[in-house]
Amino acid sequence: MPAQLLDGNALARQIRSELTTEVAEFIENNGVVPALAAVLVGGDPASQVYVRNKRRDCEEVGINSTLHRLPETTTQDELLNLIARLNRDDAIHGILVQLPLPPQIDSRAILEAVSPNKDVDAFHPENVGLVVQGQPRFLPCTPAAVQQILVRNNVSIAGQHVVVVGRSDIVGKPLAIMLAQRGPGADATVTLCHSRTPDLGAFTRQADILVAAIGKPKFITADMIRPGATVIDVGINRTDAGLVGDVDFEAILPVASRITPVPGGIGPLTRVMLLVNTLTAARQLEM
Ligand code: NDP
């Protein structure tokens, strides 16, 4: 029997509909509309599309969004000034600085300048630290999307062996930490693999749940999957054949028990998590 598809689009729709109700309740109780400020520096076409989609998502669930467009030549001080202004603005609950930033700007300094209370991407060191300590203020969006697709499809995580391939600061590393925490949606035994892991297949074949966050099209092949495993494909690779994940979907379909498609898997859910974090920020700031 082919693997069950874990449908990220359907789950994203469901969570957006839950959020629409929660946002309306929040507005009724507080007299304030949750608001996200998006900051876009320069004209990178992919970044423009991402920001446009994120703002459309906000609109759909009733969150206000404002866009701050700055020219490619913006200096670090100019951007820091804008962030300081947004940090002070009581009408703004979440701040999103779209990456990548132009080379004259130090991204780390910018991400550290965003108030941790408005840091809906959860990139600020304080928020990373809280995640590591198991006391998150916000969960990073892509790892949260992976956790939600497992939890909401009743895939057991506790006691399972999760193998994460990829150790980036925005995906693999925080995900490995989150799934190894004590508590619901976690309690896994986690192995974190990367480009210096010898004989990767020897690790991936032990996975009850395999997460690929590598950035190489179809890198994970069918012989690397334990029959019956759950396979989560975070990868988004633009190829001549269109968007392709990090796993060889067609070949793995008959081997795995569950698998996420690309597109339509983790991508749409990642977008929803930004909305979840914006509502969380609004709740915390308006308490
Ligand atoms: P990075 O490039 O930051 O990290 C890639 C990781 O993969 C690194 O840890 C790297 O190891 C590891 N890796 C590379 N080659 C190999 C190899 N041959 N064997 C084992 N491990 C390897 O990528 P990101 O984490 O930012 O993104 C990963 C993928 O997920 C990309 O396709 C990206 O587009 C996608 N993505 C999707 C999102 C979504 O919303 N669905 C959101 C964010 C990312 P090392 O550390 O040793 O270099």
Automatic annotation (TrEMBL):
Tetrahydrofolate dehydrogenase/cyclohydrolase catalytic domain boundaries: 6-121
E.C. no: 1.5.1.5, 3.5.4.9
Pathway: One-carbon metabolism; tetrahydrofolate interconversion
MF (Gene Ontology): methenyltetrahydrofolate cyclohydrolase activity; methylenetetrahydrofolate dehydrogenase (NADP+) activity
Keywords, in A-Z order: Amino-acid biosynthesis, Histidine biosynthesis, Hydrolase, Methionine biosynthesis, Multifunctional enzyme, NADP, One-carbon metabolism, Oxidoreductase, Purine biosynthesis
Entries under InterPro entries matching the protein: Aminoacid_DH-like_N_sf (IPR046346), NAD(P)-bd_dom_sf (IPR036291), THF_DH/CycHdrlase (IPR000672), THF_DH/CycHdrlase_cat_dom (IPR020630), THF_DH/CycHdrlase_CS (IPR020867), THF_DH/CycHdrlase_NAD-bd_dom (IPR020631)
Oligomer status and interactors: Homodimer.
Listed name of the protein: Bifunctional protein FolD
Origin species: Lacipirellula limnantheis
